[in-house]
Design brief:
Blueprint: H1 26-41, E1 46-48, E2 58-61, E3 68-78, E4 82-88, E5 96-102, E6 104-110, E7 116-122, H2 123-136, E8 145-149, H3 151-154
Antiparallel strand pairs: 1-2, 2-3, 3-6, 4-5, 5-8, 6-7
Length: 155
């Protein structure tokens, strides 16, 4: 396993749409392990492959209940109820803003063994799922910010 450099705002790779993963091989599994290690080292709750320069539909999430690996994730359902809450991004350090997201989402994906599964998330997990899937489509959280939060005045 190895730490990967997290791409930051202004890097064109963050604005590109990712390609589907057609084969889960050793290279893919190494990328997933590296992404988890990088996310934990950066104190993040999620990381998408384009954030480490790889244009593939892979993301990892851990909201405190253990790591979740999503390959080729797609939202298949979301609640009408929306929640506005603070959000940040490892690719836009030092910036926080309020973003509206669905309270509940259902996502279909492949796990690292290539098995299809669905995951339902509410609260922070729903927010993380939406945030990371947005990354796979070249969308950054700042595109959806309703109001920026001044982190300096929060302390």
């Amino acid at each position: 396993m190895a730490l990967r450099n997290i791409r930051e705002k202004g890097d064109e790779v963050l604005r590109k749409k990712c390609k589907l993963v057609n084969k889960i091989d050793d290279r893919t599994l190494t990328l997933i392990e590296d992404m988890l290690e990088t996310m934990y080292e950066a104190d993040g709750v999620g990381l998408a492959a384009p954030q480490v320069g790889i244009l593939r539909r892979i993301c990892v999430i851990d909201v405190g209940e253990g790591p979740i690996v999503l390959i080729n994730p797609e939202k298949i359902e979301e609640s009408d109820e929306k929640v506005i809450a603070p959000e940040g991004c490892l690719s836009i350090p030092g910036i926080c803003g309020e973003v509206e997201r669905p309270e509940r989402v259902v996502v279909k994906a492949l796990d690292k063994d290539g098995k299809s599964y669905t995951i339902e998330g509410t609260g922070l997990l729903a927010r993380a799922l939406c945030h990371e899937i947005d990354h796979l489509d070249g969308v950054l959280f700042e595109d959806k910010v309703i109001r920026y939060i001044d982190l300096d005045s929060e302390s």
